[in-house]
Amino acid sequence: MTVSIYRVLSDKGEGGKLVTVFPDVEGNLQARAAGAGAPLSVFVEFSSLSEVALRVFTPVKEKGSSDSAALAALTHLRPNLLDVAEVQMGDETLPAQLCGGEWLLRQGVPEVKEIAANLSSIGLGAEPCWSSSLGRPNLVVEVSDLNTLDAFTPHAEAISAVNRATGTTGLILLTAGGPGRADLSFRAFGPLKGFLEDAASSNMLACAVGVLGAWGRLPADTNLLRASQRMPGQPARLSVQFGQVEGGEEVWVGGAAVPLA
Fold first, then answer.
1. Is 164 exposed, middle or buried (0-12, 13-18, 19+ CB in 10 A)?
2. pTM of the prediction?
3. Which helix (H) or strand (E) holds 208?
């Protein structure tokens, strides 16, 4: 069967994440993923008009779930899907919907609260800080502008110490606006989660959008946002849909998946 490689959540063809889509689950899946030449491989275990079951692998191990992998698989299967579907990966089942030609996955309703944090050890001042959680709490900090965001240099030990002190597991820096008419720009760090910086994080973006909702900073004339994720050398572009529900903002995140020739 045909194997396809997709660039997911890229910014004008750059950055994002590469995902190999296998349309079957035959043979040694780990060996096939190791030889795929991409950081992520997704195998389609089952698909119908409204349901998709996937298995996701890195070159060295099976990964429970990955939004980037799901977006690649949904795009690959688009001719055989309705505009809404449920995606099963590992122990998770995520609702998905097609919006403006891009697939979005439901992230949930972030739990948000304002907290105090000493950010001097990571080179930041008295910026507003929030805890925002979709299962695991992230420390969300607004910085003044895009230059400050891009100039930030992450240090794993310092970020980990701030996370431990605030009872959080990740750090999200955000600012308003961005390149290409982005509504917001952000960076996502998670040494306590096993990575220094993520290039394209749907979950952490959803946490940031939850904070914007708590601030009263989401636009009233639309329920869609474009976000620029600014990991140096690996930019990403993500799409967000939000809506007020009991308890906060329900957030969906996704974006484009483009097949490579």
1. exposed
2. 0.94
3. helix 202-215
